[in-house]
């Protein structure tokens, strides 16, 4: 018998010639321009680019939260263009995990209830051993009966990571997952994300402004003005920062390179 891993395609997510136009006529903005990109199963990719380069639009289109104007997005072996809203919702629930800067936990539910929520919503009976494995992996075994409000920011983000891992999705999209955390807590969360890729083969795509966060990835892809403009494999924070500087990412000083870059963290 095949396990699900045996039959997983080697490409978890593929975008082909994706265009996304917002607005009409004089107000038209081309946020993505013929963007083509693939994300291999079991890889960790960081997506970077200057403000307005299309990172959020990319994330929304790749995760089936928004539809491209043209081009195609495939998750696993499913072309999203062929799905109606109900099917898209089901695909997001069953095959995609999300981690946000703001954690997005339900405050009235315990840690354990938050973690098993995606399984409950999918009508699946939680497998106790699998849940406990995930809870242990994120280091929350002592906290399962706490409410999110009783946890630190780093602990809350670890709950969000466990919640994303528990359905064993084809891909997890993370949007600035360490944006609200201090440097040391961010490092712990990034190490955990890295470990979920290295040890269980999770596929992870993370949008970030932080070169140090990006240095935990296998690959960094750079967007500028809605286009793919380059990539770095086995990135260092210094190389990422240098590339971002060349892209003019910090000209407006809204996103300073992290102070930790100089230390060569990773
Ligand atoms: N709903 C929308 N309506 C009109 N234009 C939009 C909309 N969303 C995004 N845009 C425009 O599309 C372009 C890409 O925006 P997007 O938010 O994807 O960039 P980003 O790289 O995520 O930016 P940031 O790093 O500042 O979050 C920008 O020019 C933006 O103004």
From TrEMBL:
Q: Which InterPro entries match?
A: AAA+_ATPase, ABC_transporter-like_ATP-bd, ABC_transporter-like_CS, ABC_transpr_LolD-like, MacB-like_ATP-bd, P-loop_NTPase
The record's Gene3D superfamilies line, in alphabetical order, gives: P-loop containing nucleotide triphosphate hydrolases (3.40.50.300)
Q: Name one GO molecular function term.
A: ATP binding
One Pfam family name from the record?
ABC_tran
Start and end residues of each ABC transporter domain: 13-250
Question: What are the record keywords, sorted?
Answer: ATP-binding, Nucleotide-binding, Transport
The name this protein carries in UniProt is ABC transporter ATP-binding protein
What organism is listed for this UniProt entry? Answer: Streptomyces aureoversilis
